[in-house]
């Protein structure tokens, strides 16, 4: 049986999936994880394309999206816009409540 190498960029095929992956990274409250994830998604979607849309050079993007860098917030917003996603601010849900909300969503999904 022949196996093929998994290309995770193929899974990032819609803005909804990209938003979900980025939201999960944001929920970690770890800027390194968030920056690494934004960089991975940008690379998967094509740094050349992101560069063209944002007006930022490819080298600048690679440097800014390095997990050890401290990019300007403006740069992050430009990259997110180029990925066709946006950040939304909302009240924090207590972890116990979040579990209850997710359970309610799963129950509604199963009921369909």
Blueprint of the fold:
Layout (H helix, E strand, L loop, with lengths): L14 H13 L3 H15 L1 H8 L3 H7 L8 H10 L12 H17 L1
Helix pairs in contact: 1-2, 3-5
Task: From the structure above, extract its key features.
112 residues; mainly alpha; 6 helices; globular
Describe the structure.
- The protein has 112 residues and is mostly helical.
- It contains 6 helices and no strands.
- The longest helix has 17 residues.
- It is globular, with a radius of gyration of 17 Å.
Instruction: Output the structural class.
Output: mainly alpha
> What kind of assembly state do the chains in view correspond to?
single chain
Strand content: under 5%
Give the beta-strand count. 0
Fraction in helix: 55-70%
Taking the alpha carbons of the first and last residues, their distance comes to 38 Å
**Tally of DSSP helical segments:** 6
Low-confidence parts: none
Give me a quick take on this structure.
With 112 residues, this protein is an all-alpha fold.
